[in-house]
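Next comes a concrete protein, fold included:
___
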Amino acid sequence: MYSLHKLSVSVLFVFLTFSASGGDRYRISAGAGEAGTGYACITKTGHWSSFHNQALLSFNNSFSFGFSYENRFNVTELSTRSASLIVPAAKASLGAIYSHFGYSDFRREMAGLSCGMLLSEKISAGVQIDYFSEKTAGEYDNNLMITFEAGLLFYASGNVRIGIHVFNPVPNSLRRIGMPLTIRAGSSIILSKTLFAAIEAEMSSGEKLIIKTGFEYEAAKNLWLRGGFCTDNASFSFGLGYLVKMVQVDISFATHERLGITSSASLIFKIH
């Protein structure tokens, strides 16, 4: 029998989750480096491309794997654990990801397989198949969902990039449980060898438009400082990253105007 106490905790958990995370709750974000820039990252190359824009996978030319942890508002039940693997191929790169959100009474798991490749000197593209599983304790349905996402990256000039990403372009009439459609578009510029700046817009069906801006600055060799802002809940973010031989360590913090601080940490292992 599912107790009234557990039911009330689960209801509060779901309410906090949905009210605190504008945009699409199914589109998982990962990587403390990306979190430090406010997730203005659909044109930013890096290990966590499979979570943000699969077109960026084509720029990963080394075998790598990573682990990411997000502790939302210092509430363990709202934490997200993610893992990612990238395998470079001849003219493309393959990616595999897994993410776990929630706790024993309500959890959402996601797994995906992706591929990104260069179509020309100035255009790259990528696609990913996603599998979602939602499980709730007690006499409630467990939901299984399959969808896909895809992205493009254009080089407008030598130091300006334009990115477009679409998540779940599948009619909800084809599935039992509806999922939002999310579209992201943005641009970035490399102002110097050490400074990257980006801006992007995100729109999910039934939600308001979200604007994100962020930057990354290499303050010293293999040491990066990051900052960002997101209009959703007026969230400021900041973080840093450091590369030690084959291991990159990133941490970040993001504010919420009512609920407090979200902290993230990730490790990336690169094998050339």
